[in-house]
Amino acid sequence: MNRESADAALEGASLVPYGEGSVAQAKELERQLLAAGIPAMLAKPPAKACCGGGCGCGAKLQILVREDDAPKVAQLLQAEWVEAVRREGTVDGGLVALRTPQENELVCPACQFVGVLVDGACQDCGLVLE
Question: Which residue among 9, 29, 72, 80 is least packed, with the fewest CB closer than 10 Å?
C-alpha cells in the first residue's frame, strides 16, 4: 500500500491513535503498516505539558489508524515481537506462552491476551473493545 491509497482508505474514516513515538519510530511503524496493507497516517499529538516545553524529550508523532484496524496492528506487532524473541532464543523453557488467534478471537491491544471478548471486553484486562 502506498501513501496515496492509504490516504484514500482513511478519508472520512474515524481514526484512533495507535501509538506515539519519535519521528523516526513513527515513520518506521507507518512504513511497516503500509507494507502490510494497513492504512495509517502520522499526526502531531495533542499538546502536552512535557512535549515542546523545553524539557528535551524531542518531537513526537502519533500513528493514526482506523479503529477496526487496531487489532490487525496488534497482531502485526506481536508477530514481529515473537519472531525477534525466537531469533534471540529467549522462548526456550516456556518463558513466553504464544499462540495464534483462532476464528472469533483477537489480540487485545492493551495486554496482548488472545481470546474472545466477554461482553465486548478483553477477558484478561477488561479493556472494552466493542
Answer: 80
Name beta bridge partners: 121: 118, 128
- Domain range enclosing 53: 3-98
Q: Is 78 part of any domain?
A: yes
Contacts (Cβ under 8 Å, ≥6 apart) of 9: 1, 39, 66
- Tracing cell 477488561 back to the chain, one arrives at 126
Q: Are 63 and 15 in contact (CB under 8 A)?
A: no
pTM of the entire structure? Answer: 0.64
Note the pLDDT tens digit of each residue in 44-83. 888 764 555 556 667 889 999 999 999 999 889 888 887 7
Give yes or no for a contact between 114 and 105, defined as CB atoms under 8 angstroms apart: yes
